[in-house]
């Protein structure tokens, strides 16, 4: 089942058919007891059926939740970070966090900094090395239960974070720095390890993408439950929160996003999140 947030209210796709969800408030919906079972049991009579939402009607599938992120959860990210920060002595601390019990967790965005499907993300103008990070994003209710999964883009300024680790918030948090969507795969069990995560970047009218990369969840060093356990330690989220789980796909070191680029992030079972760059 995929839950979409549209201008007309939440819509759930079940076995290829779409139904309006009779709870308009996204925060309330995410925090329902047994969300998956409740959505499965919704009246499937024709009166509840609606047309598939048009792409232009899709909104970022979040309410008032904060978005957090995990880092260096894939070997590919560990290597990329060690390379970008070598002049700042980064080799050691990225290797250490990759191996430590405690993961890297950082604040990524408030809802106003998040764009939805088709939204335009912002290239920080004081960065000369900005890249998308395609990340499985966990949708977590106030009880710390993973209720779903969506595609996330943790847009990152590699030059700013590589210059000095204390600049991480500036490399990560700025206007339109995160994208989520297209919908939420409602968790009816753990997400399979073989789930593919792909990223394509298209430029102007090129016939092929300027970048294509992919990984699978099996390459992630930590489990979603482990990351959520750390995030909810000594912290509470009254309406739940979203957690990006880190990137395993990094474009080559000479790659930088350009105005007009289109980033497509596809995660198996969820769909494709498409965003332009300003
Ligand atoms: O430590 C810097 C950020 C890491 C990150 O965002 C990732 O691995 O996805
Ligand atoms: Mg990231």
If you had to describe this structure to a student in words, what would you say it looks like?
The protein is built from 7 helices and 19 strands. Helices cover 18% and strands 34% of the residues. The mean pLDDT is 95. It has 2 domains: 2-57, no CATH class; 66-277, Fumarylacetoacetase-like, C-terminal domain (Fumarylacetoacetate hydrolase, domain 2, Alpha-Beta Complex), CATH 3.90.850.10. Helix 3 packs antiparallel against helix 4. Strand 1 and strand 2 form a beta hairpin. The strands form 3 sheets. Strands 1, 2, 3, 4, 5, 6, 7, 8, 11, 12, 14 and 17 form a 12-stranded mixed sheet that branches. A 5-stranded mixed sheet has the order 9-19-18-15-16, with no helix packed on it. It has 278 residues and is an alpha+beta fold. 2,5-dioxopentanoic acid (DO4) binds at residues 69, 71-72, 77, 81, 104, 133, 154, 156, 161, 246-247.
Nutshell version of this structure?
By secondary structure, the chain is α+β, with helices and mostly antiparallel strands. The protein folds into 2 domains: 2-57, no CATH class; 66-277, Fumarylacetoacetate hydrolase, domain 2 (Alpha-Beta Complex).
Characteristics:
278 residues, alpha+beta, Fumarylacetoacetate hydrolase, domain 2, 12-stranded mixed β-sheet, 5-stranded mixed β-sheet, 7 helices, 19 strands, globular, binds 2,5-dioxopentanoic acid, binds magnesium ion
């Amino acid at each position: 089942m995929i839950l979409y947030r549209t201008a007309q209210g939440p819509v759930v796709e079940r076995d290829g058919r779409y139904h309006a969800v009779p709870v308009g408030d996204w925060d309330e919906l995410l925090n329902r007891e047994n969300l998956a079972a409740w959505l499965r049991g919704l009246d499937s009579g024709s009166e509840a059926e609606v047309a598939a939402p048009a792409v232009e009607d899709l909104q970022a599938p979040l309410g008032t939740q904060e978005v957090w992120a995990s880092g260096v959860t894939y070997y590919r990210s560990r290597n990329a970070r060690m390379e970008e920060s070598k002049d700042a002595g980064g080799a050691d601390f990225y290797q250490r966090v990759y191996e430590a019990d405690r993961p890297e967790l950082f604040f990524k965005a408030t809802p106003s900094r998040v764009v939805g499907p088709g939204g335009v993300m912002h290239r920080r103008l004081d960065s000369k090395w900005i890249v998308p990070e395609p990340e499985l994003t966990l949708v977590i209710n106030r009880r710390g239960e993973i209720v779903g999964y969506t595609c996330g883009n943790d847009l990152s300024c590699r030059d700013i974070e590589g210059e000095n680790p204390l600049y991480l918030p500036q490399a990560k948090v700025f206007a339109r720095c995160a994208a989520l969507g297209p919908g939420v795969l409602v968790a009816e069990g753990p997400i399979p390890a073989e789930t593919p995560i792909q990223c394509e970047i298209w430029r102007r009218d090129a016939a092929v993408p300027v970048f294509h990369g992919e990984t699978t969840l099996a390459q992630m060093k930590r489990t979603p439950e482990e990351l959520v356990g750390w995030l909810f330690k000594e912290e509470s989220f009254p309406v739940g929160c979203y957690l990006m789980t880190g990137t395993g796909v990094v474009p080559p070191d000479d790659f930088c996003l350009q105005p007009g680029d289109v980033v497509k992030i596809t995660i198996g079972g969820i769909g494709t999140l498409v965003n332009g760059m300003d």
